[in-house]
Design a protein that fits this description.
The chain is an alpha+beta fold. Helix content is 44%, strand content 19%.
Length: 90
């Protein structure tokens, strides 16, 4: 586990959810971010929110689009490397 430092306001579904706060990331997401695999991160997060069959519908595509927009926004506002939590390795 780690914290991804992010500056500025991050919006989700037209609501501000984070202002100058780090985002907690699991080990799998940390690996994707460290490898600069942001598209892989988008699909991992989407898969956690909706099963693959739900992603085929209009609501699933809307969710994927919103997650993609949010993660791309986070990517542009990262201010440093992932900081380990509780002795985990970054």
């Amino acid at each position: 586990m780690g914290l991804l430092p992010v500056a500025g306001v991050i919006s989700v579904m037209r609501c501000s959810v984070s202002m100058n706060q780090s985002w907690a990331v699991c080990a799998a997401c940390q690996d994707l971010i460290s490898a600069d695999e942001w598209d892989g991160l988008i699909h991992r997060v989407a898969g956690k929110f909706a099963p693959p069959e739900a992603a085929q519908g209009v609501m699933g595509q809307s969710l994927l689009g919103e997650l993609s927009r949010m993660i791309r926004q986070i990517r542009t506002q990262v201010t440093g490397p992932i900081e380990p939590i509780d002795g985990s390795k970054a």
